[in-house]
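During the reporting period, we have paired protein sequences with backbone structure tokens. One record among many follows, to show the layout:
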Amino acid sequence: MSVPIPATAALRPTIGGAVIPYINVRLADGGVDFRSHHTARSAACYSGQRCQLCGSPLRQPIVFLASADALRALLFDEPPLHPECARYVTKVCPVVAGHRTHHAAGPPLAARHRGQTCPEPDCDCGGWVQKPDAYDGPARPALPWFAVYVNHYEPASYTDTPDVVTAAICTPADVLKVMQVSAPGEGGMWLRVADPTAEYVPPVTTTGGA
């Protein structure tokens, strides 16, 4: 059964009935790599407060989809979302939805021959640019996912990429609520997490990247 597309993303292109996110790499053959982020667009989402799904300006509350480690550090390597766009992603992405127990194995599509040519002649992606933490080894176990609702964040960079915005960083005071979205193999649950910042550990980053 198809998932209704939120009004915020109504004008986005689709493939197989699903929205093609603003941040994902488009392939020259008409496909899309859901495992690879277009680096410039991803950075624009962090710096310009744009939604990673629909690409339009954010409003409060802002939502980050995060692993337990990201929640603990309040350092998010998935760009922000509108609440309705976040709900949509948690239904259509099989890993975030908890339908899979493992991530896909091997390199993403954009790292293979399909990613050698960019479909946009003047695109600033350089063909494509792999995420700093992209993984191309054996299938890794999937992890629980959380939706973190915040009223503020700052663009941030990992210390090994100080000139490129690759993340968002928050403080416990910025967090409005946290919901556990799913668990691997168990599907969606949307359970509120009590005291979600109790184990907060400030990360080591370079904030305010270009």
Remarks:
- The mean pLDDT is 83.
- Residues 7-207 form one domain.
- The radius of gyration is 16 Å.
- The first strand starts at residue 14 and ends at 15.
